[in-house]
Amino acid sequence: MASINSKRTLRRDLWLAGGLLGLGALVAIISLTEIKANHLDQMAQATPEPSATPAESKPGGTRPTTPAPEPARPDPAAQQEGANKPALPPAPAEKVAPPMEKK
């Protein structure tokens, strides 16, 4: 009796797996057709044709005529003060590891 029941179970599982596989393929096909249909609805805007002559340049125009600003440089006293300060405070004694031994 157990062999008949196992054959029925196997047959039912195979039909269920085939149905789910077919349903997944159907959903994938519908999705791909929707993507393709939406892609066709979107049209690219045409760019205007370039003219034969370039645009007329105007003196002074919108571009700056002065040289670009230079990066800020602190005065020597501030540089000296910053060089002597450590970036971080010293570590507590319990967190300092012993020196590594050379091999």
Provide the fold topology.
Elements (H helix, E strand, L loop, with lengths): L1 H40 L34 H9 L19
Provide a descriptive summary of the structure in words.
This protein is mainly α and 103 residues long. It is built from two helices and no strands. The chain has helices at 2-41, 76-84.
The secondary structure category is mainly alpha
Count of helix runs: 2
- What value does the Rg take, in angstroms? 38 Å
Q: Based on DSSP secondary structure assignment, what is the total number of beta strands?
A: 0
Q: Poorly predicted ranges (pLDDT <50, ≥5 residues)?
A: none
Concise overview:
This protein has 103 residues and is an all-alpha fold. Helices cover 48% and strands 0% of the residues.
Key traits:
103 residues; mainly alpha; 2 helices
